[in-house]
Amino acid sequence: MAGPAAPSPDPDADVARRVADAMRAVPRAAFLPREVRGHAGEDRALPLWHGQTGSQPSTVAAMLRLLDVPPGARVLDVGAGSGWTTALLAQLAGPTGAVLGLELDESLAAWGASNVAARGFEWAVVEPADPGALGRPTIGGWDRVLVSASADRMPEALVAQLADGGRLVVPVRTTMHLVVRRGTAVSVTTHGEYVFVPLR
């Protein structure tokens, strides 16, 4: 006589576990200015410089769960800041993936690049963003795009850079949006209220 069927795996629980593991593997403190590292464990945004902030951990975790980065993904990180989100994305994508962090502030981009390099993630880089352009198109499109700044409206330029099956997580004004591309069809869902620095 057959026993009860085994429960189906919960994909959301698996994603949450992978994100939690990544955040343990890539400590926030190493991506903060020395004078605020003592606050790394606090669940709040912390200052970097030039008016930029490092997002609070619970917000980063929520965004990464929505993004659902699979191993081997090609990922674009818009507003990379200190490089922490880029490094987390690199941890999730693994060495078969490719992660590009873009940061408009050149000095912050240089610091973020050195922070990511120090972790040994050879498949991830942080570079200065192209002035006047949003994102950076790549052949075949990005599998995942993360935006850590608030857009006034849906950034269609980034939607256009998604690969088939790609996912974009972006705060629009104060609402978190998840955009999923399936062929020529694009779906958009909303996921709570957050506060970010403006997307420039």
UniProtKB/TrEMBL annotation:
This chain's protein is named Protein-L-isoaspartate O-methyltransferase
InterPro entries linked to this entry: PCMT (IPR000682), SAM-dependent_MTases_sf (IPR029063)
Similarity section: Belongs to the methyltransferase superfamily. L-isoaspartyl/D-aspartyl protein methyltransferase family.
The record, for CDD domains, names: AdoMet_MTases (cd02440)
Quote any Pfam family the record assigns: PCMT
Q: Which domain of life is it from?
A: Bacteria
